[in-house]
User: Which sequence fits this backbone?
C-alpha cells in the first residue's frame, strides 16, 4: 500500500486522472467536458468499435458536454461504430448538488429522449444487486446497438437511430466512509476525491481510514507480495482485448499514412508577383477534395457551418456533409447533405474539435477550418491537446499520431461587413504558450504558399499546426516553385521587392500574413518612388517560430541567420497579422531587437473597409512609410514633404471609404509597380 500511495498522484508518480501515461487512454479527465465528443471521434469510421463513455453529472453541466449529446445525429450506423454513454448520476460535484440529479426522473428521461437517446436507468446502492442490474442493462444496450447496426448494414442505408444510453444512479463515494465527525460523506459532496483528511496528524482519522480500507477485505484480494490473487488476475481478458492494450487507444499503431495527391497540381499560375488576385483558400478546397477522394475511410474535414463560407466547398464534389436528422425537399437544392457524408459540420466548435481529437487520437487524419475570432471558443481544448501531445512525446510506447490541422480563416483584416465582433487574431498568443515541440504556426500569404503549407501539415505527426490565411481575394506573390522554396525556408527575403542586393539596407520591411504583407509591399513601393536612393530589404515570414531563437523552438532561426537577415543595427518595420507584442515576445533576445518596430492589430476594430481598418491599427502603407521616414535620420527632415503627402493620402482614403463604403480604386487595384 505504501508503494502504491507513493505512486498514485504523487510527485514523480502517475496522475490521478487518466493521463497519457495510462495505457489504453485517449482522454485525459482534467478539464471536464470532452468525454462524449472524444468518444464519438473514436467511433467514426470504426464500424466494429463500441466506445463506452462514463460522463460525470457535473461534467454534464459544461457547455462542451451539453452540446455533444447531439453527436448521435452524426453517427452513421453502417460505417461507424457505436457510443454507449453512461451518465454517472452520483448527485454531486466538489461542493454542490448536480442539476441533473435534482430534477424529476421523468424530466431527466424526457431531456435525454429529446436529445435522441433511449435512456436505461440503473439505480441503487447495494453493490451485489447493482452489479447484476448493470450487467443485465449492458446486455440489453449491446443487443439494441447490434440490432440498429444489423438493420442499417443489411439495408446499406444510414438512418438516424435512437441509440441506448445508461443513467447510472449511485451514491457519490459509494462504499466510502459513511460519515466523518457527524458529517455525511458517502452519498454527499464531501465524498469528492479525499473523503478523510488529516490522517497524518489525527490518529482517530487514521484509524477511520484503516477501517474503511480494511472493509474491502484486502487479504482476500491480494497475495503476500501485494499482487492480485490468481483468480482475480484470470478475469482480465488476454492480449489486445485488455483495455490497456487496445491498439485503437494508441492510435499511431493503427494509423495509415495519408495518400496525398501532388499539391503542385492545384497551383495558381503567377507570372509576376503582386499582379493578380485570387481567393487563397479555394484551391486548398480542391486539394482537400482529392485527399478525401483517396482516403475514403480515414480522413474527415471538420468545420462549424463554414466550409462553404471559407471557400472550401470543392470537397462536396467528393463527399457531402453528414446529416442524419430530417430532410426537407429544399435540401436537394444546394444543401450538400448526405447520409453517408464525411464532412462534419455542426455549429459547435467544441464538439467538432472533440470529434477531431478523438479521430486523430485513434489513428486517423483530418482538417478543421474555422473563423479566426471564434477559434477562441476552443482555446482550452487546444491547450489540453497540446499538453497531451507534449507528454506523449516523452512516452516511448505512444506511437506518433496525425497532427491536428487548424485553418484559421475569415481573418481580422477582412471582416468588411461583420466588423468588430469578428476581429480577433489572439489565438496565436494562446498557441505560443504551449510546448515548442508540438506547436507550429504558419501564415502563408497566398494560394501557392497555402497549398505548400497544407501539404506539409497533412503529412506531419504529433503537432498542432495552426495555419492563418484569409479566404477573400488577395494579391498573389509566388509561383509554385518559389512558394515551395519560401515555405521550406519559412522566412526569407523577397528579392523582387528589395533593392539592397549586395549592400546593407537602410531599412528592413517585413510582412507576415496576407494583408500585412500587401501593405508592407505598398509602403515599400511608395518609399522607393519618393526616395529612389533608399535601399530597402523586404522579408516575408511564413513560419512564425522562425522568429524565436533556435534554442527555444525547433523551427527557430539561428542568431547568425537572424542577424544576417534583419541586420544588427537597421530599423525593422515588421507588419504583423496578429497583436504586435507577440513578435516582441518571440524576438526579444535578438541582436537588433531595439530597432524592431512591430505593427499589428491594436484592438481598433469596427465595420470598415480593409484599408480603413489597416489605417486605424497603423498597419497601412501610409503609416508604415511615415514610420520609416520618422526612423531614418537622413529622411527625418528631408522627408517632411513626402510625409505630408502621405498624411493627405491617408485622410483622403478614409474619406473615400466613408462616402463610398469601399476603398478607392487605386487602393483596390494596387499592384506592385516594379
Ligand atoms: C471544466 C472544468 N471545470 C471545473 C473543474 C474542477 N472540477 C474537478 S472535479 C469537479 C466536479 C465534477 O463532478 P462530476 O463530473 O459529477 O464527477 P464526480 O467526481 O462526481 O464523478 C470539478 C468542478 C474541472 N476539472 N473542469
Assistant:
Amino acid at each position: 500500500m505504501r508503494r502504491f500511495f507513493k505512486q498514485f498522484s504523487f510527485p514523480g508518480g502517475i496522475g490521478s486522472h487518466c493521463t497519457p501515461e495510462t495505457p489504453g487512454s485517449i482522454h485525459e479527465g482534467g478539464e471536464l467536458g470532452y468525454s462524449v465528443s472524444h468518444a464519438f471521434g473514436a467511433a467514426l469510421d470504426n464500424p466494429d468499435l463500441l466506445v463506452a463513455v462514463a460522463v460525470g453529472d457535473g461534467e454534464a453541466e459544461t457547455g462542451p458536454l451539453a452540446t455533444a449529446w447531439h453527436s448521435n445525429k452524426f453517427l452513421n450506423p453502417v460505417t461507424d461504430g457505436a457510443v454507449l454513454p453512461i451518465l454517472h448520476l452520483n448527485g454531486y460535484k466538489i461542493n454542490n448538488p448536480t442539476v441533473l440529479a435534482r430534477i424529476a426522473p421523468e424530466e431527466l428521461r424526457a431531456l435525454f429522449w429529446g436529445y435522441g437517446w433511449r435512456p436505461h436507468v440503473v439505480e441503487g446502492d447495494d453493490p451485489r444487486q447493482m452489479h447484476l442490474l448493470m450487467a443485465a442493462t449492458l446486455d440489453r444496450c449491446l443487443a439494441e446497438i447490434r440490432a440498429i447496426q444489423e438493420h442499417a448494414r443489411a439495408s446499406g442505408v444510414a438512418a438516424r437511430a435512437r441509440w441506448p444510453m445508461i443513467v447510472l444512479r449511485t451514491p457519490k463515494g459509494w462504499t466510502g466512509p459513511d460519515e466523518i465527525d457527524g458529517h455525511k460523506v458517502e452519498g454527499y459532496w464531501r465524498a469528492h476525491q479525499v473523503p478523510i483528511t488529516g490522517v497524518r496528524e489525527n490518529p482517530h482519522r487514521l484509524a477511520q481510514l484503516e477501517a474503511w480500507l480494511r472493509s474491502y477485505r484486502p487479504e482476500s484480494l491480494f497475495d503476500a507480495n501485494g499482487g492480485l490473487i490468481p483468480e482475480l488476475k484470470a478475469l482480465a481478458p488476454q492480449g489486445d482485448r485488455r483495455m490497456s492494450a487496445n491498439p485503437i487507444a494508441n492510435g499511431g499503431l493503427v494509423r495509415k499514412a495519408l495518400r496525398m495527391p501532388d499539391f503542385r497540381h492545384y497551383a495558381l499560375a503567377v507570372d509576376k508577383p503582386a499582379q493578380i488576385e485570387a481567393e487563397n483558400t479555394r484551391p486548398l478546397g480542391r486539394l482537400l477534395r482529392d485527399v478525401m477522394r483517396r482516403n475514403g475511410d480515414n480522413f474527415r474535414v471538420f468545420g462549424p457551418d463554414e466550409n462553404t463560407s471559407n471557400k472550401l466547398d470543392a470537397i462536396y464534389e467528393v463527399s457531402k456533409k453528414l446529416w442524419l436528422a430530417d430532410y426537407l425537399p429544399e435540401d436537394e437544392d444546394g444543401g450538400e447533405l448526405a447520409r453517408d457524408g464525411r464532412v462534419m459540420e455542426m455549429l459547435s466548435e467544441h464538439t467538432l474539435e472533440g470529434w477531431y481529437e478523438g479521430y486523430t487520437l485513434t489513428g486517423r487524419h483530418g482538417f478543421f477550418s474555422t473563423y479566426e475570432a471564434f477559434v477562441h471558443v476552443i482555446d482550452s481544448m487546444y491547450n489540453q491537446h497540446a499538453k497531451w501531445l507534449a507528454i506523449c512525446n516523452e512516452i516511448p510506447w505512444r506511437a506518433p499520431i496525425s497532427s491536428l490541422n487548424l485553418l484559421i480563416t475569415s481573418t481580422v483584416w477582412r471582416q468588411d461587413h461583420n466588423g468588430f465582433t469578428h476581429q480577433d487574431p489572439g489565438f496565436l498568443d494562446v498557441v505560443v504558450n504551449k510546448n515548442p515541440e508540438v506547436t507550429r504556426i504558419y501564415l502563408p500569404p497566398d494560394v501557392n504558399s497555402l497549398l505548400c503549407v497544407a501539404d506539409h501539415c497533412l503529412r506531419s505527426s504529433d503537432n498542432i499546426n495552426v495555419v492563418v490565411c484569409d479566404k477573400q481575394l488577395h494579391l498573389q506573390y509566388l509561383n509554385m516553385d518559389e512558394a515551395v522554396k519560401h515555405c521550406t525556408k519559412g522566412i526569407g527575403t523577397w528579392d523582387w521587392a528589395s533593392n539592397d542586393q549586395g549592400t546593407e539596407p537602410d531599412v528592413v520591411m517585413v510582412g507576415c500574413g496576407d494583408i500585412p504583407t500587401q501593405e508592407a509591399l505598398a509602403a515599400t513601393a511608395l518609399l522607393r518612388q519618393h526616395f529612389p536612393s533608399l535601399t530597402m530589404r523586404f522579408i516575408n515570414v511564413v513560419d512564425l517560430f522562425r522568429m524565436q531563437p533556435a534554442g527555444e523552438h525547433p523551427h527557430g532561426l539561428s542568431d547568425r541567420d537572424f542577424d544576417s537577415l534583419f541586420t544588427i543595427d537597421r530599423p525593422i518595420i515588421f507588419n504583423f497579422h496578429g497583436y504586435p507584442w507577440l513578435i516582441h515576445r518571440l524576438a526579444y533576445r535578438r541582436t537588433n531587437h531595439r530597432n524592431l518596430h512591430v505593427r499589428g492589430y491594436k484592438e481598433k476594430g469596427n465595420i470598415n473597409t480593409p484599408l480603413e481598418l489597416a489605417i486605424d491599427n497603423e498597419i497601412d502603407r501610409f503609416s508604415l512609410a511615415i514610420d520609416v521616414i520618422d526612423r531614418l535620420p537622413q529622411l527625418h527632415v528631408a522627408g517632411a514633404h513626402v510625409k505630408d503627402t502621405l498624411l493627405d493620402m491617408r485622410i483622403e482614403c478614409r474619406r473615400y471609404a466613408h462616402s463610398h463604403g469601399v476603398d478607392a480604386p487605386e487602393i483596390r487595384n494596387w499592384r506592385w509597380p516594379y
